TrEMBL record:
InterPro entries: Nuclease_put_TT1808, Restrct_endonuc-II-like, Uma2. It holds the Pfam family Uma2. This is Putative restriction endonuclease domain-containing protein. Residues 12-187 form the Putative restriction endonuclease domain.
Length: 195
């Protein structure tokens, strides 16, 4: 993952930027971070989960490719693999020119991140397990899933006050417990293998 040299001081500057490519970026502390290509398995997991959520929520409430502004030492916008929105949030996003959940909008109900490989202390690991966990908690997102194919684990976190508490780490044939979506009946293996 490489970082571009550009620095932005507001979300509006970032939204106005166009480098003429289809490159995926996240804005981290005012700097563009090239997210690179996702592993095919990560993409399949996110798409398979989308198909599962379609059985319990309206397609209007499922977001993929939507960014979310989060608190950080400087302006930051994350690009989660999958989000489940509230109806109010869907209506607000539908009135905007770009699909970005700004700081003054309500939080989504759930964010799902599929982790790229990395060991503790690596950029990928720290971003998914430390930075985003803190940012999403500060943003008030009630539920956060960390899906880690390399470690064969699905971690479900529930917001308790200002911090996440672990609902569980699910592996193999464990049923993944979702406080927000108890009607889902998915095993960790189904999620990790995209069905």
């Amino acid at each position: 993952m490489t970082q571009a040299k550009l620095r932005f001081s507001t979300i509006e500057e970032y939204l106005a930027y166009d480098d003429g490519t289809d490159t995926r970026y996240e804005l981290v502390d005012g700097v563009l971070v090239n997210m690179g290509s996702e592993k095919r398995l990560n993409e399949k997991i996110a798409l398979w989960l989308l198909s599962q959520f379609l059985q319990v929520v309206s397609i209007d409430l499922i977001a993929r490719g939507t960014q979310i502004a989060v608190k950080s030492s400087s302006v930051t916008a994350r690009n989660p693999d999958l989000m489940i929105l509230t109806e109010d949030l869907d209506q607000m996003l539908s009135q905007q020119n770009q699909s970005l959940i700004t700081a003054n909008m309500p939080a989504p109900v759930l964010i799902v991140e599929v982790v790229s490989p990395g060991e503790p202390g690596s950029e990928n690991y720290d971003r998914e397990y430390i930075d985003k966990r803190r940012e999403y908690a500060e943003r008030g997102i009630p539920e956060y899933w960390i899906i880690d194919p390399a470690r064969s684990v699905v971690t479900v976190l529930r917001l308790d006050g200002k911090q996440y508490q672990e609902v569980g780490q699910f592996q193999d044939s464990d049923i993944v417990l979702s406080p927000s979506f108890p009607q889902l009946n998915l095993t960790a293996m189904q999620i990790l293998k995209a069905g």
